[in-house]
């Protein structure tokens, strides 16, 4: 049995401090915006397709919202969630690109070839063009579609851009993280460029504006210029609260008593984002959308604990398949919900938003068979049972294989060295290397800035490659039952085998020096020509083309890139 050591505080003492209790009574800024008598709510109706606002935050930890007992002030999110439906059995993916791809396609990443890592700025890769996206289906249903914020689904050619994938307008960044003011992004030493785009053009004139504020202002502008009589979909993918840790000074001042500097900056960013959501909600009411609107709030992955985030009391962090990496903050707020002001424990996954929102929009799903998501609106609005019974968290054949895994440990049907995770009913199975596995209590419990004195560590079990948990009874993953329940382990391994048979080859091409911003006017953006695309897309099918003889043209192309890369490196030195 595992042995644990908790330094500084016990779980009981944390309970006494209230860190595991949820505060339902915090004040809200949203309440102040409905005082105008012209903004009183009308009876909810589905006579027209609803306006849909989907808000996605970046790297916000499970603990980092007021109603999860956080010390961070989020009055808007608290009020919206309290008046709507909190989703407390809600799952996302452990890193950026996978969550966004599954939201946009309604498919597991094994079915889009994006099951490994993220799409990096210099890779000739993007969301597969054969996928019909969520905004495209909403356009078919008569919606005006807009995206504001972080894309991170590839951009090496113009066909990959948001405006080519179903969005009428786009303001935001294409890469994974940028400076909140200058919008610069460096993908390694000397490989830096500007990344803020308006449509398909570089938005040089917006530099200097804090992204969280800029994005909220853009949403308000879209609402002001559109008619509430026509359905609208706005996807707001905040950069916040991803690194770099930057915030306007007035928000940092509120948390000046926090000893941990990273946590202080992070908290300020969360509160700024909360006020941006307040402004978006206010605009929905001001311009006449609110009464027929559905607001969905979701995080994209767990918090990064070494950059101020907290997933307490869950195990693990961003980038892991422990609950701290994949259980998200989620809620739905809408006058159209039949059973409001409650907490739902229905099993929901980020792939479910595709069929759910298309169904709400009265769109046609028959043209997109094989979705991995389910329509969960009856579970959310009426409290009915969720149609979802299991979640494939992922199967990543390229991730570093676990040292102690083997086919023998997987009953001869699964190599447990492969990183994979699945949940079926109340059971969760992990194989391979699931990632950093500690429990990290809230950083503010210590007066030692930047230190982790309250880290609770697992002191044995390091030579394992299989874990089994009853997540319903043990949501914090403290009691591994793989030895006691080999029957359940085998059953879940069979489900992994089933899913693996449906997986397509991984799309993870080598980085290409042609993507360097210096060759593209100093900004990140599409860089591949049509001839390039044909050659590189052939290379992107490693399982099919690995043993084929390379064409001379490809050999010459790669030789050119090698020489070009050598020249670039010498210039940096």
TrEMBL record:
Cofactors demanded by this protein: Ca(2+)
Signal peptide residue numbers: none
Domain Sulfatase N-terminal: 50-361
Alphabetic keyword roster: Calcium, Glycoprotein, Hydrolase, Metal-binding
Native source organism of the sequence: Tricholaema leucomelas
Protein's recorded name: ARSI Arylsulfatase
Keyword Calcium belongs to the record: yes
Domain of life: Eukaryota
SUPFAM superfamilies (UniProt xref): Alkaline phosphatase-like
Magnesium is among the record's keywords: no
GO MF annotation, one: sulfuric ester hydrolase activity
Family designation: Belongs to the sulfatase family.
Organism phylogeny: Eukaryota, Metazoa, Chordata, Craniata, Vertebrata
Coiled-coil annotated spans: none
Gene: Arsi
One Pfam family linked to the record: Sulfatase
């Amino acid at each position: 049995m595992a042995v644990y050591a908790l330094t500084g505080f016990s779980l009981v003492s944390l309970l006494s401090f209230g860190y595991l209790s949820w505060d339902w009574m915090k004040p809200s800024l949203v309440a102040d915006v409905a005082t105008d008598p012209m903004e009183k709510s009308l009876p909810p109706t589905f006579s027209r397709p609803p306006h849909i606002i989907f808000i996605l935050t970046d790297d916000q930890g499970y603990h980092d919202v007021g109603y999860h007992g956080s010390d961070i002030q989020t009055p808007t999110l608290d009020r919206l969630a309290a008046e709507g439906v909190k989703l407390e059995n809600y799952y996302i993916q452990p890193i950026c690109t996978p969550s966004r791809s599954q939201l946009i396609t309604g498919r597991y990443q094994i079915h889009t070839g994006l099951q490994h890592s993220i799409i990096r700025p210099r890779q000739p890769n993007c969301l597969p063009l054969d996928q019909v996206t969520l905004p495209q289906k909403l356009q078919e249903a008569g919606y005006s579609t807009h995206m504001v914020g972080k894309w991170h689904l590839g951009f090496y050619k113009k066909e990959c851009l948001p405006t080519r994938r179903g969005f009428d307008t786009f303001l935001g960044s294409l890469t994974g993280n940028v400076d909140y003011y200058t919008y610069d992004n460096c993908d390694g030493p000397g490989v830096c460029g500007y990344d803020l785009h308006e449509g398909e053009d570089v938005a040089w004139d917006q530099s200097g504006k804090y992204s969280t504020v800029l994005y909220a202002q853009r949403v308000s502008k879209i609402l002001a210029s559109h008619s509430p009589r026509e359905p609208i979909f706005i996807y707001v993918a905040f950069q916040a609260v991803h690194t770099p840790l930057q915030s306007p000074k007035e928000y940092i001042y509120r948390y000046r008593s926090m000893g941990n500097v990273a946590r202080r900056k992070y908290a300020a960013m969360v509160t700024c984002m909360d006020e941006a959501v307040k402004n978006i909600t206010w605009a929905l009411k001001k311009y006449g959308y609110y009464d027929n609107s559905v607001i969905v709030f979701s995080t994209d992955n767990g918090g990064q604990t070494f950059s101020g985030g907290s997933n307490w009391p869950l195990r693990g962090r961003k980038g892991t398949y422990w609950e701290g990496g994949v259980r998200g903050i989620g809620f739905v707020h809408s006058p159209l919900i039949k059973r409001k002001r409650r907490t739902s424990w229905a099993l929901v996954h980020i792939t479910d938003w595709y069929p759910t929102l298309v169904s709400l929009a009265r769109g046609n799903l028959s043209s997109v068979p094989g979705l991995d998501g389910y329509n969960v609106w009856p579970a959310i609005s009426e409290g009915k049972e969720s149609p979802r019974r299991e979640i494939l968290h992922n199967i990543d054949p390229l991730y570093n294989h676990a040292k102690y895994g083997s086919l023998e440990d997987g009953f001869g049907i699964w190599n447990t060295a492969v990183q994979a995770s699945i949940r079926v009913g109340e059971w969760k199975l992990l194989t391979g290397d699931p990632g950093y596995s500690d429990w990290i209590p809230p950083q503010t419990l210590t007066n030692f800035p930047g230190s982790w004195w309250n880290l609770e560590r697992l002191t044995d079990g390091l030579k394992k490659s299989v874990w089994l948990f009853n997540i319903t009874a043990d949501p914090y993953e403290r009691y591994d039952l793989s030895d006691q329940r080999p029957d359940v382990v085998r059953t879940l391994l069979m489900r992994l085998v089933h899913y693996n048979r449906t997986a397509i080859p991984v799309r993870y091409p080598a980085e290409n020096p042609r993507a360097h911003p210096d060759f593209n006017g100093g900004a990140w953006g599409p860089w591949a020509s049509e001839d390039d695309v044909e050659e590189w897309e052939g290379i992107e099918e490693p399982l099919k083309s690995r043993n084929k003889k390379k064409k001379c043209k490809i050999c010459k192309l790669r030789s050119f890139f090698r020489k070009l890369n050598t020249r670039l490196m010498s210039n940096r030195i």
